[in-house]
Structures are given as C-alpha cells and as structure tokens.
Predict the structure.
Amino acid sequence: MFKNILVPTDGSPLSQETVKRAISFAKEAGAKITAFYAKPSFPECFFGEGALVDPGSPEKFALMAEEEALRILDEVESGCREAQVPCETCAVESDIPYEAIIEVATQRDCDLIFMSSHGRRGIGALLLGSETHKVLTHSKIPVLVYR
C-alpha cells in the first residue's frame, strides 16, 4: 500500500524510537524510507549601535547545522541498511519545520508521513503547539502518528 514513507527526525530519543518503528513498518510494507531533518536557520539578532558581531558566525552556524543533520540522518540510514530497507535522506534549512515536512513529502512523492508525538495534552499542548499537530492539520498526505 505505501511505497515511500517520509520520516521526519530531530535526533531526540523519542524521534529515534519513532525511526525504529518506521523502519519496521516500512519493511513490512515493502516501502522505502525518506528520512528528513529540518536544519535551523541562523538566528537573526538586532543589535544597537556599536555591537560587535562575528562575521563568520552565520557560516559556522550553517556548518554545525549541516554536521548535525548528517549525523542524525546517518543514524537513520544505518538502521535502514541493517533492516534492508531502502533509504534516501533529505535536509533543508527551515524555521517552520511542519511546512518543510509537508513540502518535502510532496516533492519526494511520499504517500505517508510517519511522525512521533510527545503526547502533550490540555494546556501544555495548547501553549507549546506541536509540529505533528501542524502537519496533521495541514497535510493532504496521510500521517501516521507514533506515541
């Protein structure tokens, strides 16, 4: 039924557990995994007159974000290789991860988005929001939420 499953990850323990479950699901479904990581953009700071800013900071930040993305996505690739599940990876810079998740899923012809949920309820969910909730409410592609 599913052929290409987008698995967004941030490298957190919950996300790592979700990746494992997604790999098992993909293996049973005969699908491939498209692992995704949203790299943060360099934070814009507004300084007053006379502030010192290291001109290399944006480049250093971008390099660190790329290294983090590679590390996290390499872990997914390794798990897929071990389970003999085909895998592609994708990392894009985005300060709005849910939009990037939906955009990549659409561009890569994914037919399922497999995500984790922190399981927040009540006021915590209302105040903190959730990338998973935003994907659920905006995506036209089916979303499987693992908790």
In short: The chain has one domain: 4-40+53-146. DSSP finds five helices and five strands in the chain. The beta strands are 4-8, 32-39, 87-93, 112-116, 143-146. Residues 42 and 60 are 9 Å apart (CA to CA).
